Amino acid sequence: MQTSQKHQTRVNIHRLCHRPVKDDDQFCLPHIQILENNACSDIGSQGPSVSYQAYNDQIFTLESSTAAASFVAYDSPSAISVSSSRSPFSPQGSQSWMSDPHHSPDNTHGSPFSGSSVVDDSNGLKHKLRELEVSLLGPESDIIDSCNCCFTSGAHQAASMAGLNHEQLVDMIPRLDLKEVLIACGKALYDNDKSRVAGLMHVLEKMVSVSGEPLQRLGAYVLEGLRARLESSGSNIYKALKCQEPTSSELMSYMHILFRICPYWKFAYTSANAVIKEVMEYEQRIHIIDFQIAQGTQWMYLIAALSKRPGGPPFIRVTGIDDSQSNHARGGGLSIVGQKLSEFAKSYNVPFEFHDTSVSTSEIQVQNLNIRPGEALAVNFPYVLHHMPDESVTILNHRDRLLRLVKSLSPKVVTLVEQESNTNTSPFFSRYIETLEYYTAMFESIDVACPRDDKQRISAEQHCVARDIVNMIACEGQERVERHELLGKWRSRFMMAGFSPYPLSSLVTSAVRDMLKEYNNNYRVVEREGSLYLGWINRAMATSSAWR
Questions:
Q1: 392 touches 424 (CB < 8 A)
Q2: Domains along the chain?
Q3: How far is residue 194 CA from its own chain's centroid?
Q4: Rounded CA gap, 21 and 40, in Å?
Q5: CB 484, CB 133: distance < 8 Å
Q6: What is the spatial distance between Cα 165 and Cα 198, in angstroms, rounded to a whole number?
Q7: pTM value?
Q8: Is the model's pLDDT at 488 over the cut of 70?
Q9: Residue 292: how many CA atoms within 13 Å on its side-chain side?
Q10: Measured between alpha carbons, how far is 484 from 442 in angstroms, rounded to an integer?
Q11: What's the number of CA atoms in the CB half-sphere (13 Å) around residue 245?
Q12: How large is the average pLDDT for residues 191-209?
C-alpha cells in the first residue's frame, strides 16, 4: 500500500497533543431512553446515553488498566501521549480467521506476522515447538488467520530493502510500501543495526500520519515505540517518554469515544453479564468481585436486568478493584463508583451494597475481598489478567497466584475476557510483527466509524491505544505490562488452578450477536468449544470464556 499524500503529517508533539475534547454523551442501558449524539458516523446506535430517574451523571467507559507511567520519546521531532496502561483490545484485519481448520487460536505461528520468514528461527525447531504447543493447549481451531500472505509477504519484500542505503530509500519513498518499511525497521532494530534503523525511521516519518489511512496511523505510533526502544532501555524508557497527561474529563471523553465506536468493551460486558445472570438465576444474595471495575458501567446493565426478575430482584453486592487510569479518568477513588451504582440500584428498587478495596490487583489477598457466607460469588476479569506479571517476569507469578486465590473462594462462576493476541513471552521481532498485525485491525475497525481527520478520534487513539503499542515495542521485563496470551494458554492456566470450563450457552451468543447489530457488519462472533471469539473481518480480536 502506497502512502497517501493527502494525509501525510509529521508526527509532532504539537500535532499529536490536541485540544481537549468535549463530549456531552451519557451512557445508556438497552431499555432506557437513548439520546444520540453522533460525533462519529457510519455505525448504528453507537452513541447511547443514559436517561433515568434521579440519575443523569455522565458514565463513560473503555477503562484502562494498571501502571500509570506516561511516556514519549525524547530527542524526537515526534511525541505522543502514551502510558503503560492498557488499551481496549488487540486486533488485525484482512485475514481469514474462521475458515482454515488447520490453524488454531492457540497457534502463535498462524498469523501473517508471526509466520514471517525473517524471524531467525529454525523451521525444524518451530515444528517441534508447535507439536508441543498443540499437545499442551488443545486441538486445532478454525478461528484464526488462514491467510498467511499479508505481512509474511511484506516481510519477504522488506528483506529485499536491506541492500538500499539511506539516500536510495528516501528517493524511493513515493514507491515504497509502508508495510514493508515498518517490517524492515523492526528487523533492523532486532538485528541491532542502529544506523540502518535511524535511516528507516527517517523514511517512516515521511510516510506516517495520525490522520491518514489505518496503517499510516498505526505507523505513527509504532515509530514512537521504535524510537523509544532505540534511545532507551529498561527503566529508562519511562523516563525518556513523557507527554502532557490529559485532564480527567478529557480522558473520560476519549474512553467514551472508543466505547461508542467499537464493540470490544460491550462484548466483555454483554457476554459476562449474560453468563452471570444465567448462573445466578435462583440466587437471592449475589456477590460480584470485579478485578477492574473502572467506572462501574457494566453493573448498571446487570442491575437493570436483574430488577425484572420474577418474584423480585436479589440482593447484589459488588466489590471493586481500582486501577490508576480509571481513577484518573473519573477524578477520584472508587467511592464515586459506589455512590453512582447505589443511586442507580435505588432507582430500580434493587437492594445493593458496594465494597471499595484499597489495594492493587497484584496485591490482593483474601481478606481484602470481604467474603461473606450465604452469598453466591461471581468473579469478573475484563481485559485485566494480561497485566498481571507471570512466571516469565517474576518468581512471584501474580498471574497464576491470583487464579489460585480466586479458586479458593469457590465462586459459582468466573468470567474472563481478553485480547486474542500473543505478546507475553515472544521475542522482540515476533512480538513486533504480532503487534503490527493486531493493531492494523484495530485501526481498520476504528476507521469505518470515524472520519480520518476527526480530532476526537485522533485524541482517543493517542491516549487510549498508542500507549499500548509503545509499551509492547519499547519495553521489556517488568516495564512491559502489555502481555497478552491466547485463549489456549488462558485455558491451561485456569485448569492448572483447578477450574473447569463453563460452556457459554446459546443465550449468551444471542446476546452478543444482538449487541453487534449496532456496529459495522465486519464484526463477527463465533462460538468455539464453549467460548466466544469476537473478530474484525478475518482476525480474532477478543475472547470470552467462563469457568467454575
A1: yes
A2: 143-244+421-483 (no CATH), 262-414+484-499 (3.40.50.150)
A3: 31
A4: 13
A5: no
A6: 11
A7: 0.74
A8: yes
A9: 30
A10: 15
A11: 13
A12: 91
